[in-house]
Design brief:
The complex is a heterodimer of chains A (172) and B (251). Chain A has 172 residues and is mostly helical. Chain A has 7 helices and no strands. Classes of the chains: A mainly alpha (172), B mainly alpha (251).
């Protein structure tokens, strides 16, 4: 029962990630999306193992061609495309958040630290990939692929911590 | 879901509809990978092939263009950045920026490749049913160790099932809040909170109920999967695709 419930929760968060990707605002080569809010939540609520499983299922569904990536796109091509690095970066990010949450029992300061580290990991993967695929220099990639999204990310981190705190008693 | 996303299955009777989904996935992967190194002649022949396939599958081109409009904006930005940043023989000068021949060439190449990759995905998803994708992913993952392929396939099915539920719930809650005059509250944070919190609680309760229902119906992971027969056509198309990719890489 527990395993099935966690499967359902992980799929739900993956589905929320997909919905977060639909609501995208196209600015520059990387659209602003709510995807990473739900990636943070997967780590915070499900822990490293199930969080990873959920995000892996999400990426797999996208790679197999289901329309779950930003703007309702799907296909292995999207993983190799310019925004593929961010998507792959979700995996280590969710693992980091999950591990820290498990070890520290969801203390808020550790949560903030974990989320900031995770964001840095996502950008490290995303920016490297973006500059390889489109041939821009690292600085150009940083300007189009990271700087415009930092304020949004700060809001998303705060929201994720808030939502996680309110949901934890309900689901565990 | 079909109304929300351009990429969805369209019923049809073409060669691609009849092909085994596993073969289509493999073909999509080798085409996407060989595109990384393809240059102009290859891209031109691939465009020709894809246009023929699009005509054969009968995808309305006009709807394709409207559905990909955001992607075209992205392509334009990438193209302009390439054009400005590549050094080379100047084509013409505007103050501050020099546009070079190499930049024009590189920009076109990169954008053309990205466009081809997205069109490949579009072709795949419009000719393959979701249940076929699910079973073929499970079968393709089976030989890889450390991946629980059956659970992954179940989760993919659940993801597809949850997406419309989430949209439906968002709609219901926002209507309910409107009926309670939420729009008269000026604080956007308050309005957001009034939407998001009930939504999250609601969908998690739904997931709980779903798990309960699965237990009640004796769900277990080792249910048998139906494997479609692989026919000669599948191998022929795969061989043709492989040869075509080889050709793409070497011209």
């Amino acid at each position: 029962m527990d395993q099935l419930r966690m499967t359902a929760y992980a799929s739900l968060l993956a589905a929320l990630t997909a919905v977060g990707a639909y609501i995208s605002i196209p600015i520059g080569p990387v659209p602003i999306v709510l995807q990473n809010l739900f990636v943070y939540l997967s780590g915070l609520l499900l822990g490293s193992r199930w969080g990873l499983m959920g995000i892996a299922a999400y990426l797999l569904a996208g790679a197999a061609g289901l329309p779950v990536f930003a703007g309702g796109k799907g296909g292995i091509g999207h993983l190799v495309g310019p925004t593929g690095g961010y998507l792959l970066g979700f995996l280590p990010a969710v693992a980091i958040i999950g591990l820290v949450t498990e070890k520290t029992g969801g203390k808020i300061l550790f949560g903030i630290g974990a989320l900031i580290t995770a964001t840095a990991v996502i950008y490290a993967c995303g920016i490297t990939w973006l500059s390889i695929v489109t041939g821009m220099t690292i600085v150009q990639s940083l300007i189009v692929g990271m700087v415009p999204f930092l304020p949004g990310d700060a809001i998303k981190i705060a929201a994720a911590l808030f939502i996680a705190r309110s949901l934890r008693p309900v689901i565990l | 879901m079909a109304a929300l996303t351009p990429f969805h299955y369209r019923h049809g009777n073409s060669l691609l509809h009849g092909l085994d989904a596993r073969f289509k996935i493999i073909l999509m992967v080798i085409f996407s990978l060989s595109l990384i190194h393809t240059s102009f002649p290859g891209l031109f022949s691939l465009t020709l092939l894809l246009s023929l396939l699009f005509l054969h599958v009968r995808i309305p081109i006009a709807s394709l263009i409207t559905e990909l409009r955001y992607f075209f904006i992205l392509l334009l930005v990438v193209f302009l950045l390439r054009l400005i940043s590549t050094e080379g023989d100047p084509l013409f000068r505007i103050p501050w920026v020099t546009l070079s021949k190499q930049g024009l060439r590189e920009g076109t190449l990169v954008c053309w490749r990205l466009l081809m990759v997205v069109l490949l995905g579009f072709l795949f998803i419009s000719t393959t049913h979701i249940s076929a994708i699910k079973t073929s992913v499970q079968q393709l993952l089976a030989p890889i160790p450390l991946i629980p392929e059956k659970r992954m396939a179940t989760m993919m099915g659940l993801i597809v099932r949850f997406i419309p539920v989430i949209f439906q719930k968002t709609h219901t809650i926002s209507e309910a809040q409107k009926a309670r005059c939420i729009e008269r509250r000026k604080n956007p944070l308050y309005r957001l909170k009034a939407l998001v919190m009930p939504l999250m609680h609601g969908v998690f309760q739904d997931a709980d109920k779903l798990a309960m229902a699965m237990v009640a119906r004796c769900y277990h992971e080792n249910q048998p999967v139906e494997t479609p027969e692989v026919c000669r056509n599948d191998w022929l198309v795969l061989a043709f695709g492989g040869l075509f990719c080889f050709f793409l890489l070497f011209i």
